[in-house]
Amino acid sequence: MAEDPRAVAKAAGLNEEDALEPLAVAEAFVAATQEFAHPATLVQPVAAVFETRFGPRTLAASQSLMELNAKVLELWRAQAESTLSLWQGMVGVTSLSEAVQLQTSHLRRHYEETSRRARDIAQTAARMASGLALEAKAEIPPRER
User: Which are the contacts of 15, defined by CB distance < 8 A and separation ≥ 6?
Assistant: First the structure.
């Protein structure tokens, strides 16, 4: 069941009228994500707990996963900012051709940026998987012949 937009807006610190305004909701989201300058800064305290409890192998795996999560969160934040900039630009258009041109250029930039970030996420995931596989392989003793 979907939540009431007014309750969500109140939880986000918006007034009830802003709950139905997409631009206000997007601006609140961008402002909230600015608080976390870089999600990777959250890794250090969590990494210290993992290191003491589970050892260096698990620590390496958890740091890789946290790095991957940070990249995905950064992608979402960039997409929200990009969408917000499109909405702000669309407010000032005076003709249909200008709106089409603005949307086309925005979609091109958005596609290029998303593709670049997706490639980076895929490379990070591949690097993480190969590193973990090598560690696991090193722990398995060779068969006696």
Answer: 9
In three-state secondary structure terms, 37 is: coil
Q: Which of 120, 135, 6, 122 is nearest to 60 (CA)?
A: 135
Percentage of the chain surpassing pLDDT 90?
Answer: 27
Please say whether the beta carbons of 24 and 8 come within 8 A. Answer: no
Say how many C-beta atoms besides its own lie within 10 A of residue 9's C-beta.
20
Nearest to 78 by CA among 123, 44, 112, 104: 112
3-state secondary structure of 3: coil
**Alpha-carbon span 57 to 99, nearest angstrom:** 53
* Token pair for 90: 């669309």
**At residue 108, does pLDDT exceed 90?**
yes
Average pLDDT of 53-78? 79
